[in-house]
Design brief:
Bound molecules: magnesium ion
CATH class: Alpha Beta
CATH topology: Rossmann fold
CATH architecture: 3-Layer(aba) Sandwich
Number of helices: 5
Radius of gyration: 13 Å
Structural class: alpha/beta
Distance between the termini: 18 Å
Largest sheet: 5 strands, parallel
Shape: globular
Number of domains: 1
Order of helices and strands: EHEHEHEHEH
Strand order of the largest sheet: 2-1-3-4-5
Amino acid sequence: MEEKILVVDDEDYHRELMEKLLERLGYQAVVADSAEQAFSLLQGQQFPLIITDLIMLEMDGVEFCRRIRETDAKTVVIALTGHADLYDLEKLKEAGFDNHLSKPFKIDVIKQAIESGLAQFRQRSQDD
Ligand SMILES: [Mg+2]
């Protein structure tokens, strides 16, 4: 169950690319094309790690993360900052993000971020 990662991105290209990268790294990727779809997935299952795009129609990634944090302090949430200039990192931290990754994706960077994210999740689970 710790190997399952939720990917939220409104762009098909980025969502499918991330899904492929995660699978190549040996993780199970579950994808959503909006924050709304992600919330319905989150009602039925738990993920140790969520990777979310920031710029999305309807609910953006910052609001998505804020809402997650209302009930869940444990899941590690990573932002995909394709347009980092529009979101300052302080604001991302305030919203509850644990980390951020920039597009275009680099597999080594993603691998590292996921490994440390999963370790962080295990740490938080132990602290309960
Ligand atoms: Mg987007």
